[in-house]
Amino acid sequence: MHACKIMDKQKEDYALPELPYGYEALEPNISKEQLTIHHQKHHQAYVTGINNIFKKLKESRAAGIEIDIKPVAKELSFNLAGHKLHSLFWKNMVPEKKYEEPKGILKKAIEDEFGSLESFKKEFSRAAASVEGSGWATLALDNKTRKLLILQIEKHNVNLAPEVSMLLVLDVWEHAYYLDYKNDRVKFIDNFWKIINWSEVEKRLKENGDNR
After folding, report:
1. Which end of the chain is more exposed for a tag (fewer CB within 10 A), N or C?
2. Do the Cβ atoms of 95 and 21 come closer than 8 Å?
3. Is the CATH number of domain 96-207 3.55.40.20?
């Protein structure tokens, strides 16, 4: 793509996305207070971090100043991955009263890979519960083999496999559940199954060319 066209599509800043539901909508599984803090404080911090880094880079490049790029690149990777993952996370949840079981090509894909939805749930829950420290569990599609994978992501950006598309993500940093569940991560994971937006997961599967 021509450089001018790339520049035309660039935006000034990254922005915190709006939630697709109200802050109280995921209760009792995620409280209004927990969701508000997670979205407005933690996710906003990653967005602010990204924008500050780009501002710093722009100013140093304009002034011809060489900066220590290693910590800057690491911080950018961390904040950008946090922003991208949280943006996926909000969309793959839905109020419990609107919950529907997976169906169609998503149901078939899960059954083909894991044997049954229940088997998948158990395996995904074990992966989420066993994340070391802060991190994520994700259901991903390997874009080469077309296989469904359950992966762990440490922090935001460590152990993230290339050439995979994330279909379902679960934040198991303590900031995602501590107000509601204290240190009971397993209970948080159990309740997560009540609010998954499976239609969004199927949409992501289809967008990545899987029509089975």
Report:
1. N
2. yes
3. yes
